[in-house]
Amino acid sequence: MKATLLVALLALASLPAYAGGDAGAGAQKSKACAACHGADFDTPISPDIPRLAGQHEDYLARALSDYKSGERKNPIMDGQAGALSAQDILDIAAYVSSLNGKLKVMPLQRFAK
């Protein structure tokens, strides 16, 4: 009985962690990002700035979280991500991942040599 109750409570407590972002809210929250990554998130202003449109949502959320925490370093992104809440990160990741882009997927056999 106690184990079942504990599992149920843990499942309820973890729901926010699995709740996805709101792409509509992310469209509004990501306007500052477009200054460098491009309005479509697929035409960055410089070759050293990544294309993000269509990137996996979980990857984007993790990258933003890592910039915010300092695990990942970039002078511009550190400041941008530092002001984001956890919900902001989820929303932006949901929006940017929903966009069509020209990301290229590397075939696995390329790494299996």
Task: Give a description of the structure.
The protein has helices spanning 2-13, 15-18, 23-29, 34-37, 57-69, 75-82, 86-97. It is mostly helical. The protein has 7 helices and no strands. Helix 5 packs antiparallel against helix 7 (86-97). Mean pLDDT is 84; it is low at 5-18. The chain has one domain (21-102): Cytochrome c-like domain (Cytochrome Bc1 Complex, Chain D, domain 2, Orthogonal Bundle). 53% of the residues lie in helices and 0% in strands. The longest helix is centred in the middle third of the chain and has 13 residues, at 57-69.
Write the layout of secondary structure elements.
Elements: H1 2-13, H2 15-18, H3 23-29, H4 34-37, H5 57-69, H6 75-82, H7 86-97
In short:
The chain has 113 residues and is mostly helical.
- Indicate the low-confidence ranges by residue numbers: 5-18
Give the number of DSSP strands: 0
Helix content: 40-55%
Percentage of β-strand residues: under 5%
CATH architecture: Orthogonal Bundle
Please identify which CATH superfamily we are dealing with: Cytochrome c-like domain
Specify the number of helices.
7
Which structural class fits the helix and strand makeup? Answer: mainly alpha
Task: Output mean pLDDT.
Answer: 84
CATH topology: Cytochrome Bc1 Complex, Chain D, domain 2
The backbone outline, from C-alpha atoms, is globular
Number of domain units: 1
Biggest β-sheet description? none
Q: Give me the strand/helix succession.
A: HHHHHHH
CATH hierarchy class name: Mainly Alpha
Q: Distance between termini?
A: 53 Å
